[in-house]
Each structure stands twice: as C-alpha cells, then as structure tokens.
Amino acid sequence: MSQPLACLRPEIIALQTYQVPDARGLIKLDAMENPYTLPDALADEVMADVARLGLNRYPDPALYQALVVRLREVMSVPDAAGMVLGNGSDEIIQMLALAVAKPGACLLTVGPTFVMFRAIAELCGLRYVEVPLTDEFALDMPAMLDALAEHQPALTFLAYPNNPTGNLFATADIMTLVDRASGYVIVDEAYSVFAEHSFMPLAASRDNLVVMRTLSKVGLAGLRLGYLAGPQALTATLDKVRMPYNVNVLTLAVAERLLQHYNVFLGQAEAIKSERTRVMQVLSTLSQVKAFPSSANFILFQVPDAERTFAGLKAAGLLIKAVPKSLARGLRVTIGSPVENNAFLTALRKNL
Length: 352
Ligand SMILES: *Cc1c(COP(=O)(O)O)cnc(C)c1O
Description:
This protein is an alpha/beta fold.
C-alpha cells in the first residue's frame, strides 16, 4: 500500500502557508511597498533592455558578476567583503540556514521581528530561539548574552531597523553581540534607505559580521533581488548553497539598468521619509493613538481596540497590518503617497 504523505516531514506539514491578504480594490499599506512606479522614460529604457534579452538561454554568469560590481559601487560595499545575490533576501536567509543546518544548530533572533526568520528556521530544521525586546523595543542585552552562551547560535538575525517596531538597536549593543557570538551575526538592513545608520562599512571588518539588504523596500519588491555582504570565507561557501541560476535574466537586466539610475529611488525614499515625518506628527496629535518613532517606511501604532480599527479601515478601503504579538500588539501602516496617507489618516480618525 502506498503512503506518500508519510514521506513528508511532519514539521513541514505543521507549518502555516505564508498568507498574502487579498488587496484587490484596497489602498495597499500593509507590505512596506514603495507607492511610486518608474518614471516613464526609465520604464521605456527597461522595456528596451528586456526586449533584447535571450530568454532561450540560461542567465550568463557574467551578468551576475556585473551586477555584483554595480551593487558594490552603488551601495558602497567594502572591497574586502564578499557578496552573494538572492531571489529576494528571503532566499539568502534560506541559504544561510541551509549552510549551517547541522543537527541541533540554532537560529537566534529577537521578538517581535520579521516572521521569515522563524519560518525558514523551521523549514531548514534549525532550533529557533527568540529573545523578547525590552518595553522600549531595545535589545535585552543580559538576556541576549545568556542566549548566546546557552544556545551557541550558528546564526543571530537582527533586523535593523526592526520590523514591526521600526527602531534601530544601539550600535554598541550589536557590536557587543558580534564580539561575543561564536556564530554569524546577520544585520538585516531591508530598510536601510530610510534609516540614519548602516553597518555596511563594517561588512568586512569581522569574521562573523554579515550585512544583508534587499531592493524590495526601495521600490522593487516585484524584482526579487536581495544581497549579502560579509566575510569571504562565508560567501564562498554560500555560493555552493546557491542554485546556479537563482537570479533570473529579467531581474539581472532590470536591476543593472535601474541601479544606473539609483538616484530616482533615493529621491522617492526622501519623499517617503518626509511623509513619515508628517504622518507621525498627525498621529501624535491623536490622543487615543500611541505611535512609535520609525527609521523605516512604516509606523507601528497602538489604539484602544486594534481589531475594530483594523476592520474599520478595511471597510473604508485601506489595508494595513495587524501585529498580534503581545509586546508590540497594535497596527503597522506602510507610508504611502501623500494621497494614500491622507486617506489613512482620515479613516483612522473615524475608526478609533
Ligand atoms: C521585508 C523584509 C525583508 C524582505 O525580503 P525580500 O525577500 O528581499 O523581499 C527582509 N527582512 C526584513 C526585516 C523585512 O522586513
């Protein structure tokens, strides 16, 4: 008698499928996307590039290498750092997890944080350990140091700024963890374009410090391109985990072209940051709202009844994100265009 289901790993059967809420007809402020599309002239250039591609051929490794060179220059990656590109930074997290997945290996992070750290740890069979942040969303250093000593994590992930709380952890705290960790410390800078500080200049300075970024929050979430900069002994090994053609020709060609015009995206990020300041100011005038300062393109806020406000906003045509986790229990709104942000603020006032 055949029993194919018995072949599947029970811990994978137990996982939840990643849910993407249906946003049709709604103003989409739930997923930290950039609200702006490409200027027409740039979109035309991209179309011309794409039309010239040979989709019949596998991606030429020279295009991958050229994109690495381009990223080094545009993102000021230290020369001594090695680099790896992924199909989004999600894929890079998975490469790291696969590379360390010995029996009993551990992935350490904070709580609350980016949900993919847990999902990928479970998928790859790593022990997942989450140390709660303090009430101010800072690293709980005594607890983190205890966790390093007790669990000897192969990977420690720190989202910087953290999602969903939006804050940057103290630089000195992160460096202490880098000094004390026996495994790799990965600073996940998905929101670096909106933040005041970056660890990129240190990407080659320690044998266990790794900086990971993505173009997703910059305005290219659909492109799926993440990158990692870190010690070459690590990146050389990740290149063996990486599937040969993990970054497809469309992504390679479009990213190459758009990074030649990176100032367009920096301009959009400036617009989003000034909207962040404005939205924050308005939220601070609402007595029933407690909004937390953000170094990212979203704001976490608390209201008297998060479920009611979430549902009211949805009925008004706005999709935001409910953050169920106890510590940061509340709502997370992505900063959109001025029109979208005004629609959000109007609907919020009516649904407190
Ligand atoms: C959104 C996000 C990512 C994004 O990953 P991609 O796969 O590159 O889109 C990574 N890390 C954090 C903390 C995020 O919030």
